[in-house]
Amino acid sequence: MSGPQENSHDHDHDHAGHASERRVAVAAGLTGLFMLAEIAGGLVSGSLALLADAGHMFVDFAGLALAFLAFRIAHRPANARNTYGYDRLQILVAYSNGLVLFGITAVIGFEAWARLRNPAPVLGGTMLAVAVGGLLVNVAAFFVLHGGDREDLNLRGALLHVMGDLLGSVAAIAAALVILWTGWTPIDPILSVLVCLLILANAWRLVRDAGHILLEGAPAGVETAEIAPTLRREVPAVADIHHVHVWAITPKRKAATLHAVIAEGQDGMAVIRALKAVLETRFGISHATVEIEHGRCADRVPDDHDHDHAEAHPHRAHDHTGHRRDPHHHHGHVHRMIGSPA
């Protein structure tokens, strides 16, 4: 059952999602229009450099369009096949965009190496005009995206595409000026490699963060080892907490499941409410499933010796992670998230 706080959280999440979606749409539109202008200019002038840069812009436009599509699909309601909804698609797209950025930098690096080995003449004036136009477009797109939600990995992926173009435009302007003043063409591939290194560092962070969520890793900022001790300390009716699992559906949607042992006669529903309140306020976990147990864990295979030992030493049958040490234990049961989409 959802409370007012959770409804407010979902409303804020939806509002932030719509704002990010609009920002990505504007950035995609700007990038797409400049790409078309470059194609037209390249065909009219016969400039291979313009057509090549248009190809690079097309890759970034495709990445932005994919990010926008992910935002649109994420608004679809949950169903029996996708019980958490489609929010995770944004994480998958962010991960994919990070991999695409690796590919782009690899191509640019290869071309830079080829140009360093076999320098080719460069039209500095044409290069400068195209770079200035690209810089203006990319600065506009960058500021549109930069004001968005920093925790949104999908938006971060889109921002990295635009940032790569922006840095590329700055490097191209600098290279064009050096070529016009000195005629030294190797400056173009050298600056391209420096831009690639900056893009790679950010792309790696994006892939790492998105991959961590896709692997059901613990959310950033949540100390999982502190959850069980904190719940035992702040909810006196709880005798033990174990089988604690915490993950992020998205950076803003944190979820958890756990087992709580309470004494006979305790109000189970009141304990669940208290545990969920602590998870929300102390750890920012808004979706939690709590399984109430009396005396022993329901997942353990009956064993008289283990049962007697657990009754005599209720806190010794757990390892350092809060899990009961049980070779027969498995996680084949299915949890339904209380308060999450049906």
UniProtKB/TrEMBL annotation:
Chain coiled-coil ranges: none
Family: Belongs to the cation diffusion facilitator (CDF) transporter (TC 2.A.4) family. SLC30A subfamily.
Molecular function in Gene Ontology: zinc ion transmembrane transporter activity
Start-end of Basic and acidic residues biased regions: 301-314
Cation efflux protein cytoplasmic domain: residues covered: 222-294
Transmembrane regions listed in the UniProt entry: 24-44, 50-71, 92-110, 122-145, 166-184, 190-207
Chain intervals for the UniProt region annotation (Disordered): 301-342
Residues annotated as domain Cation efflux protein transmembrane: 25-215
Compositional bias ranges of the Basic residues kind: 315-336
Natural source organism: Plantimonas leprariae
Protein name, per record: Cation diffusion facilitator family transporter
Keywords: Ion transport, Membrane, Transmembrane, Transmembrane helix, Transport, Zinc, Zinc transport
Presence of the UniProt keyword Ribosomal protein in the record: no
Taxonomic superkingdom: Bacteria
Subcellular location: Membrane
Membrane topology: Multi-pass membrane protein
A cellular component annotation (GO) from this entry: plasma membrane
Predominant cellular place of this UniProt entry's protein: membrane
Listed NCBIfam families: CDF
